[in-house]
Amino acid sequence: MTAPVMIGQLARATATKVTTIRFYESIGLLPAPPRTDSGRRTYDRSDVERLHFIRNGRRLGFSIDELRSLIDLQENPVRDCAAASVIAARHLAEVEEKLSQLAALRDELKVFAHSCNRSTAAECKIIQGIGGMRAQAN
Q: Which SMART domains would you find in this protein's record (predicted)?
């Protein structure tokens, strides 16, 4: 086993803020670490690996609850990974929906951006278009 590391070392090793590490501990994504006699947290290799897993999962957009489920699967290696596939497929569907919404937003913004007639703000098609959106949203 490697020597334990302190929270600052863990933060540097994983490019994670100390406050984020503490947050992950407080919500149970990272286990509560043992402490030295002086009360300092100590971490080992498994904590570094777990934090990398969490950081990569967050980078991919997985929610905290999805990560909890994936960590549970990771900690029970004999379980069928079909549950992980379901989580990933559901997340992919959410990402694809967001991409579709962003594409529609991009298309609408293109219309606005190209509608400027270089007149006064009172006659601005962009401002009028955005104002008209409020009426549509209500």
A: HTH_MERR (SM00422)
Q: pLDDT digit of tens for each residue in the chain (138 aa)? A: 478 899 999 999 999 999 999 999 999 999 999 998 999 999 999 999 999 999 999 999 999 999 999 999 999 989 889 999 999 999 999 999 999 999 999 998 888 888 877 778 777 878 887 887 654 555
Look-up: residue for tokens 């969490």? 54
Contact 117, 125 (CB under 8 A): yes
Model pTM? Answer: 0.77
Question: From CA 73, how far away is CA 51, in angstroms rounded?
Answer: 16
Which class is 1-62 in CATH? mainly alpha
Phi then psi for residue 136, to 5 deg, are: -70, -35
Domain ranges of the chain: 1-62
Rounded to 5 degrees, φ, ψ at 115 are: -95, 0
